[in-house]
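hey so u asked for the seq, here:
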Amino acid sequence: MRIQTIRYFVFAISILLYSCEKAEVSQENTTEKPNDEKTENSTGITISINQDGEMDSTCYMVDSMNTYVLVVSTDSVIHNPTDTIAPIQPEGVRNGSEDYPFLACDISTGSLGLYLRDNNMERSNSWVEGYIVGYINGTAVSKSVFDAGEKETNIIIADNADEADFNKVVPVQLSTGNTYIDTRMALNLHAHPENLHRRVKVKGKICQYMSTLGIKNTGKYKFLEE
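ran it, structure tokens below
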């Protein structure tokens, strides 16, 4: 996966450099250019040029069949909106891997969650860690209960063990499918009220769940004892 991501990154940089050259030519041939005008060249690369003639920080490349989109941005992240965001990060930086999982706040209030919401995107196979602070008794995060209870279908996690603000939690689906049943049996607060306030990391898909961003298809977990 890392090798493939690096290849995407090298390819993206080449596209980015080509886009800059095309943008300069386009600007030279235009006497006036309004603020933030979008220019599309023959390769299907859409770029933004501001009033100073500088290219916007993000470029989007769509192939001729419109089968995929590759996004290169200034945060050194390659985004594939059809499924997964694959960060290129140095070791020690949280990137959603098992060794460097995201924090709950990255999804609930951080830039990752904001990006996914704004672009209606999902992120598969991601590890997220936090404290189990309760569950949702309903179909929306506003129905969060910060205690153990009767529900086996979900839990909510947060950065703080004593969190009581539903805007700062991440709901985690606990499914009954063969791939997910072990996680459900181990994490749910009905069978294990002692899990309340324990720190855990889970692996799943970051996507819309309980009227907010949550984690579904939760197939793996690991308690993080401090």
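The two ends are 31 Å apart (CA to CA). Confidence is low (pLDDT under 50) at residues 22-89.
lmk if thats what u needed
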